[in-house]
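Rotation project, supervised by the postdoc (A.L.). Task for the rotation student: set up a whole-complex structure prediction and record inputs and outputs verbatim in this book. Inputs entered:
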Amino acid sequence: DGGITQSPKYLFRKEGQNVTLSCEQNLNHDAMYWYRQDPGQGLRLIYYSQIVNDFQKGDIAEGYSVSREKKESFPLTVTSAQKNPTAFYLCASSTGQGTVAFFGQGTRLTVV
Amino acid sequence: GEDVEQSLFLSVREGDSSVINCTYTDSSSTYLYWYKQEPGAGLQLLTYIFSNMDMKQDQRLTVLLNKKDKHLSLRIADTQTGDSAIYFCAVLSGGSYIPTFGRGTSLIVHP
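Outputs recorded:
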């Protein structure tokens, strides 16, 4: 089945540690996105990538990093510089301009 | 930039119709979407409408678009408890990669 897979579903880390969230898609989509969701705040864009080896910052990129070495994969690293990393993280992909985005099931990150 | 507004909560009785409203600011928005999010899950695309359409019906779902007022609505007929979720409105301009999302409307369906 085609889709977007995020792993793990739940992730716990100690404060000060970097952590990487995985996002893989087999939809042959060019564009991929990372969003952060906090209660009552909707979705906020962290990073997006229109094509392999290229990505752009979204609205809240500080404290995060990404890579896009393969079309299928767009991992997100939450660094120790991110002041409030506990949140629900959503990955999405689309075929490109003006097309609908499909979402993964999310990763809930808790930093203690 | 684009701004998308939704009311945060809606409570309905099982069997009634639900109407979730959304307003947006960018008149060049070409694609308008409704997503559903159940607790602890990702966003599921429910339906979408193009800006050259006024209405789209898909089983229990009806989407209405008023371009003049930049107003989008989602009507769910015969609302069931399984419809309880957060509903997000999203809009996208034709030349853009980035949809703009509303903050989501929590639909609560009670017996």
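Student's summary: The longest strand of chain B covers residues 29-37.
Supervisor addendum: The mean pLDDT of chain B is 93.
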